[in-house]
Design brief:
4 domains, mainly alpha, 3% strand, single chain, two-stranded antiparallel ribbon, two-stranded antiparallel sheet
């Protein structure tokens, strides 16, 4: 089994995904060290809160792994092995689960040296918080594997990451803050409002039950032989939801469990005058005691210091509590701040009168070149030398000249190979006699129709969600930039064709065609979003949409030219999620988080312009990077 797991680790993308998750988690925690520097509980709760970033990355990693297997065309090979599918998926489940588990722990261990010298209070609830985070990471990557198998497309992984980020980040602002809502999201209820906040044990159990149900549902979706049995995944979800609702505390019981009474107990020095701090700050007692005593000496004899036996206090807020301990009333239950809410064909006569468009003439250059080559053969029709002949005469010049050289005697519209005799009484249907245009073939080879449908559906879903959960006319900048990212991720599918070698050897003016492709993709994204300006829920302003769409599309095109179309969404996704999590401040911050800045921000506009220009130049000149044999495997 160890050998099988080793092969699976080398074959799959698990190690790379774990490295990305570990780096992202470490950066997020180190950038917010001030939020968790007070102790261990603050650290684990802050890490759980940033599952809103790590969990979508894990889902994208799982969907990416399923897409790699689909692209390698190994489904039939695996199906031919004498093992049932539930056994065949065990190695990939184990490897992906272990790698994301290790990545989560590495993120936690990287932050421990900063508080190891001062944090002394380690409650048992902290281990429960970490355990729920581990289960959530495993459930996320397994759910990504299942969704990637159901929808094996290039845009599935980034779209799933964007949807997961939206649900985990924006759901707390749209739903009431309570126990039931917290139980169904591993990142909710983790905000620290004081150094004494904690997570109730029942809440952790409820969250663990729901995450286990999600993980089991992902395994069921991955194990079923046919998509018709995908509804079986609803069974563990229903059971898990029922158990979660029964276990989680609600109302006053939930509010009472958000504060740790043990962390508020006072810990004092042994010698007089005694200086006391809360148990959560016990590690700071040796540093605070000398300064507190010096302050007491300076203030002795004044009315600011009250003496009660040998116990000296610095504030009147310290009162005697039951059991001989002192409780800090100022750090009791605090009022939490409210959460912010194809063109139609025309006849030949019409085309002979009107001059063809420049794009059509560019696309017909290879056809004209082939017409000249065939017409130059001995015995070819003299009319076929003219590349301007359109309609049946042009097809005869293209197809008949080859028969003239071989003596085939083919008539116009006959699509038989040269030298094959015509079968009497056999004629092809009229719809097959019309050759497909080059532009239509180009669009179909790059899945343009399906991409347009997916982009329209994504825009409609985002608009409907914003309409239901928001009472403002204009969506927030976070929702807008995530919607733009989703549409750009969907458009990424069209940047590469199914056969790289065919694209590189085809006699086509690729530079102009790629330029037109990027311009059309940008126009489609802008048109879909700007259409909402006529509705009650507006995705604007216009300058914001143009800047983000152009910058992200240019960054994606740059990725397609350098690392390939399949990986071109990595950097746009990570950069945008980071910008949505940490809005920049100052000139450097606006440049780094340019996606979420105001439309009049000059640093953001400059970065977007540079990315758009670099992406256009790289993609137009080089095209998408060809896939290697290792990437296809």
């Amino acid at each position: 089994m160890n050998r099988i797991l080793g092969i699976e680790l080398r074959r799959s993308a698990s190690l790379g995904a774990a490295l990305v998750i570990a780096i992202a988690g470490t950066i997020v925690l180190q950038a917010t060290a001030g939020r968790w520097s007070s102790g261990w509980m603050a650290l684990v709760m802050t890490q759980r809160e940033y599952l809103a970033v790590l969990s979508p990355l894990a889902m994208a990693a799982g969907a990416w792994q399923s897409y790699r297997e689909h692209r390698a065309n190994v489904a039939e090979l695996f199906a031919g092995t004498p093992r049932p599918r539930p056994q065949r998926i065990v190695p990939i489940l184990v490897t992906t689960g272990l790698t994301v588990l290790v990545a989560y722990l590495v993120t936690l261990l990287a932050a421990t040296p900063l508080i190891a010298g001062t944090a002394r209070y380690l409650p048992a609830a902290a281990f429960a918080v970490v355990a729920v985070g581990l289960i959530a990471m495993i459930a996320s990557v397994w759910l990504g594997l299942a969704v990637g198998r159901l929808v094996p497309a290039l845009a599935t992984a980034p779209a799933l990451a964007v949807i997961g980020f939206v649900l985990l980040i924006l759901a707390p602002h749209a739903l009431p803050d309570g126990g039931v809502t917290t139980a169904f999201s591993p990142a909710m209820g983790m905000s620290m409002f004081s150094d004494y906040d904690t997570v109730d044990g029942q809440v952790s159990v409820a969250q663990a039950l729901w995450m286990v149900a999600v993980a089991v549902a992902g395994v069921v979706l991955l194990a079923v032989q046919s998509h018709r049995f995908a509804f079986a995944a609803l069974v563990p979800l229903a059971i898990g939801a029922t158990a979660t609702v029964l276990v989680v505390p609600t109302g006053d019981a939930y509010d009472q469990g958000t504060l740790d009474p043990v962390a508020q107990e006072l810990v004092c020095t042994d010698d007089a005058p005694r200086v006391c701090v809360s148990r959560a700050h016990e590690g700071l007692l040796s540093e605070v005691a000398p300064r507190a005593r010096h302050a007491l000496e300076l203030l002795s004899g004044t009315s600011l210091v009250g003496t009660r036996g040998h116990h000296h206090v610095l504030s009147s807020s310290l009162t005697e509590a039951a059991g001989g301990h002192r409780a800090d009333e100022d750090h009791g239950r605090q009022a939490r701040p409210p959460r912010p809410p194809g063109s139609a064909r025309t006849d030949d006569a019409h085309r002979s009168v009107h001059r063809p468009s420049r794009l059509r003439r560019v696309l017909e250059l290879p056809r004209r070149h082939r017409c000249r080559l065939l017409a130059a053969r001995p015995g070819a029709d003299r009319r076929s030398r003219c590349p301007r002949i359109r309609g049946p005469a042009g097809r005869q010049a293209l197809e008949g000249s080859e028969d003239t050289a071989t003596g085939g005697g083919r008539r116009p519209g006959d699509r038989r190979p040269p030298g094959r005799p015509e079968v009497p009484g056999h004629h092809q249907p009229p719809d097959q006699e019309r050759p497909m245009r080059g532009l239509t073939l180009y669009a179909r080879s790059r899945q343009v129709p399906a991409t347009l449908g997916a982009a329209a559906a994504g825009t409609a879903t985002a608009w409907l969600t914003a309409t239901v959960f928001s009472d403002r006319g204009e969506v927030s900048s976070t929702v807008l930039v995530l919607t733009v990212l989703l549409l750009v991720a969907v458009v990424t599918t069209t940047l590469g064709g199914p056969d790289d070698s065919l694209d590189t050897t085809a006699a086509r003016p690729w530079a102009w065609l790629r330029m037109a492709h990027l311009a059309t993709a940008l126009g489609c994204v802008l048109l879909l979003l700007l259409a909402t300006l006529a509705t009650g829920t507006r995705f604007g302003p216009f300058g914001f949409v143009v800047r983000d769409a152009a910058g992200l599309l240019g960054l994606t095109a740059l990725g397609a030219a350098t690392v390939g179309t399949a990986r071109s969404w990595f950097l746009p996704l990570g950069w945008t999620l980071g910008a949505a999590t940490f809005p920049g401040v100052g000139t450097a911050g606006e440049a780094l988080a340019w996606q979420t800045q105001a439309p009049h921000s000059r640093p953001a506009a400059l970065v977007a312009t540079v990315l758009a220009a670099a992406g256009i130049a790289a993609y137009v000149s080089r095209g998408p990077r060809p896939r290697t044999s290792f990437e296809n495997a």
